[in-house]
Design goal:
17 helices; 10% strand; single chain; alpha/beta; four-stranded antiparallel beta sheet; Rossmann fold; ABC transporter transmembrane region fold
C-alpha cells in the first residue's frame, strides 16, 4: 500500500496535522468548560465568564473546522490512492496479456477495479485518521489527567488496553467474514456477467430460468455473508461501547466519592469527568471504522495479489530480463529497437509453449521461418495450436523453451510496443468499442485522415453498410456493436487492419462470418493490396480457388502442437 500511497502522502500529512491540532483542542475545550462550570457553581457572574465562554466557542469552531478539513484531506488522499491503484492494476493487466485475463473471472476484475476499490474511501477517510487519533488522543488525555489526578489516570491507563484487545479479537473474525463476502461478490459479478453475455443461448435452450435460480442462490449467499459481517460489526460496537461505559463509570464513581469527601476539587473533578470519555472515544470509533474499511482493505489485498503476479517470462528466466542474462531490460531492448519486419525473417527455433494446468504442450518444438512478404496459410483442427502460434507472434505469451528471432535479433531484445507497432491483427471475434465507426477503424492508426479511413473501409467492403447508418462514419456504436451483424463487425476489423499498413498482417479466420462473395473479395484484396506484406492466415479448411492465378503461398498444418505438413499452393483461398 505504501508504494501506491506516495501521491497521497501530502494529503495524509495534512490530515494527521489537523488531527493533532484537534487533539490539542480537546484538552483546551475540557479545561475551559471545567473552568466555566466551576466558576458558575461558585456564583461568578456571566460577565466574568464571558471571556472563557468566547474562547470555548472559538475552540468548538476550531474542532469542527479541523475535523472537516481532516476528512476532506483524507478523501483527497483516498481519491489519489484509488486512481493510482486503478492505473497500476490496468497497466499490469495489459502487460500480463489476454492469456492471463482469459483464465480469470472478468466479473471479479470489474468489481475489483470499481466498487471494490471505492471501499478505500472508508479506509483512508475514516479508519486511518481515526487510528491516528486513537493513538494520540488517549495518550494526551492520560498525561493531562495525570497532572490533575493521578488516581484517575491509573484507572484510565488500566482500562484503556481492554478496548483494543477486544477490537483485535473481534477484528480477526471480521476479516474472515469480509473476505468470504468479497469472494461471493466476485462470484456473483462474474456469474451475472456470464449470464448477460450468454442470454441469447440460455433463452434458446430454455435455461434462462435455471440461471436466474443460480443467481438468486449466489445472491442469497452474498446477502447472508453481508448480514453476518454486519452482525459481527454491531456486536463488536456493543462490546466496545459497554467496555468504555463501564470504564468511564468506574472513574466517575471514584471521582465522585473523593469529591464527596473533599479529596479533590470541583474543577479538577469536572476536568477528569470531561476528559475520560474523550480517552475512550477514539478507540471505540477506530473499532467501528475498522469494520467499515474491511471491504476496501480486502479489495486492495486482491489488487496487490494481481500486481504481484510476475509478467510472462520464459521458464527459469526472470520477468523483464532476456535469456542471455542482460543486466537490465532497457539494455536488452536497445539492439532490437530499430528492427524492421518488412526486411527481416521471423524465425521460430524449437519453440515449445505450455499452458498452466495442461499436460500436453500447446506448441511442441516448432521450427518455422517466415520470409518478408510471404503469404502463409496455417491450418489444423481445433486445439492444434494455431491461435497459440499467433499469440506468440503477438507477444501475448512467451515460449517456455526455444527462441523467436527477427533477423538475427532475439524477440526478447525487441521492445513489445516496437514489435506490435509493425503488426496488424484481425481476431476471429473482434472487439468494437463505444465510439464512432471512424474512431473504431482508426484505433490502430491514431490521427488517421478521414480519406484514409474511408479507403480502408472500401477495401474491407464496409463502406456500403457504413454509409447506410444514420450518421455514417460518425455513428456511435453501442457496447459490443450489437447493432451490427457478425459479418459487419468482421469487416470493420479488417478495415482497421488495412488502415494500419503494417508490414505483418495476422488473420484469424477472417472470412468466418462473411458470405462467399464477400469472402472472395477480401481474399482478393489481401492478395492484391497486401502483396508486399507478410500475411499469416489461420483457417480450419483451406480451399483451392479456380479461375485466378495467384502468388505461390505456403500451407502449414498443425496437429497437437506440431507442424506435420508443409505444402505450396497457388492462390490465397479459404473456405468461408
Amino acid at each position: 500500500m505504501s508504494s501506491v500511497a506516495g501521491a497521497a502522502r501530502g494529503y495524509l500529512a495534512v490530515s494527521v496535522g489537523l488531527g493533532l491540532f484537534g487533539a490539542a483542542l480537546i484538552l483546551l475545550q475540557a479545561g475551559l468548560l471545567a473552568a466555566a462550570l466551576a466558576g458558575a457553581a461558585r456564583g461568578v457572574g456571566a460577565g466574568a465568564l464571558a471571556g472563557t465562554l468566547a474562547w470555548l466557542g472559538v475552540v468548538l469552531a476550531g474542532r469542527a473546522g479541523a475535523a472537516a478539513g481532516g476528512e476532506t484531506a483524507a478523501l483527497r488522499a483516498a481519491a489519489e490512492v484509488k486512481s493510482g491503484l486503478r492505473r497500476r492494476l490496468s497497466a499490469h493487466a495489459l502487460r500480463l496479456g489476454p492469456a492471463w485475463l482469459g483464465r480469470e473471472q472478468a466479473g471479479e476484475i470489474t468489481a475489483l477495479a470499481t466498487k471494490g476499490l471505492d471501499g478505500l474511501d472508508a479506509y483512508f477517510a475514516r479508519y486511518l485518521p481515526q487510528l491516528m487519533l486513537a493513538v494520540v488522543v488517549p495518550l494526551a488525555v492520560l498525561v493531562r489527567v495525570a497532572f490533575a489526578d493521578w488516581i484517575s489516570a491509573v484507572i484510565i491507563a488500566a482500562t484503556l488496553p481492554l478496548i483494543p484487545l477486544f477490537g483485535i479479537l473481534i477484528g480477526w473474525h471480521t476479516r474472515v467474514q469480509t473476505q468470504r463476502q468479497w469472494r461471493l461478490l466476485a462470484l456473483l459479478g462474474g456469474h451475472f456477467l456470464d449470464v448477460v453475455t450468454g442470454l441469447t443461448t440460455l433463452k434458446l435452450f430454455g435455461r434462462a430460468g435455471a440461471q436466474a435460480g443460480v443467481i438468486e442462490e449466489v445472491t442469497s449467499s452474498h446477502r447472508k455473508a453481508t448480514m453476518t459481517t454486519l452482525r459481527v460489526a454491531f456486536l463488536s460496537a456493543l462490546a466496545l461501547e459497554l467496555t468504555a461505559a463501564l470504564a468511564t463509570a468506574l472513574v466517575a464513581v471514584e471521582v465522585g466519592l473523593r469529591l464527596l469527601y473533599g479529596h479533590v476539587s470541583y474543577q479538577t473533578a469536572l476536568l477528569v469527568l470531561l476528559l475520560t470519555p474523550e480517552a475512550y472515544l477514539p478507540l471505540r470509533n477506530a473499532g467501528g471504522q475498522f469494520h467499515a474499511s474491511t471491504e476496501g482493505a480486502a479489495a486492495a489485498r486482491r489488487a496487490f495479489e494481481i500486481l504481484d503476479i510476475p509478467l510472462p517470462a520464459r521458464r527459469g528466466v526472470p520477468a523483464g530480463s532476456s535469456p542471455r542474462g542482460q543486466q537490465s531490460a532497457a539494455a536488452a531492448a536497445g539492439p532490437g529497437a530499430d528492427i524492421d519486419l518488412s526486411r527481416e525473417n521471423i524465425a521460430l527455433h524449437a519453440v515449445t509453449l505450455c499452458y498452466p494446468g495442461r499436460r500436453q504442450p500447446a506448441l511442441d518444438e516448432v521450427r518455422l521461418t517466415i520470409r518478408p512478404g510471404e503469404h502463409v496459410i496455417l491450418t489444423g483442427p481445433n486445439g492444434a495450436g494455431k491461435s497459440s502460434l499467433l499469440s506468440l507472434l503477438l507477444r501475448f505469451v512467451a515460449p517456455d523453451s526455444g527462441t523467436i528471432t527477427a533477423g538475427s535479433v532475439d524477440l526478447d531484445r525487441i521492445p513489445p510496443d516496437r514489435w506490435r507497432s509493425q503488426i496488424a491483427w484481425v481476431p476471429q471475434h473482434p472487439h468494437l468499442f463505444t465510439a464512432t465507426v471512424a474512431e473504431n477503424i482508426a484505433l490502430g492508426q491514431h490521427g488517421a485522415r478521414r480519406d484514409d479511413i474511408v479507403a480502408a473501409a472500401r477495401l474491407a467492403g464496409a463502406d456500403g453498410f457504413i454509409r447506410r447508418l444514420h450518421r455514417g462514419y460518425d455513428t456511435v456504436l453501442v457496447e459490443g456493436a450489437t447493432s451490427l451483424s457478425a459479418g459487419q463487425r468482421q469487416k470493420l476489423a479488417l478495415a482497421r487492419a488495412f488502415l494500419r499498413r503494417a508490414p505483418v498482417l495476422l488473420l484469424d479466420e477472417p472470412t468466418a462470418h462473411l458470405d462467399p462473395v464477400s469472402a472472395e473479395r477480401i481474399i482478393s484484396v489481401i492478395e492484391d493490396k497486401m502483396a508486399d506484406c507478410t500475411v499469416i492466415l489461420v483457417t480450419h479448411r483451406p480451399r483451392p480457388r479456380t479461375g485466378r492465378a495467384g502468388r505461390a503461398i505456403r500451407v502449414l498444418a498443425l496437429d497437437q502442437g506440431r507442424l506435420v505438413q508443409r505444402a505450396q499452393r497457388t492462390g490465397l483461398a479459404v473456405a468461408p
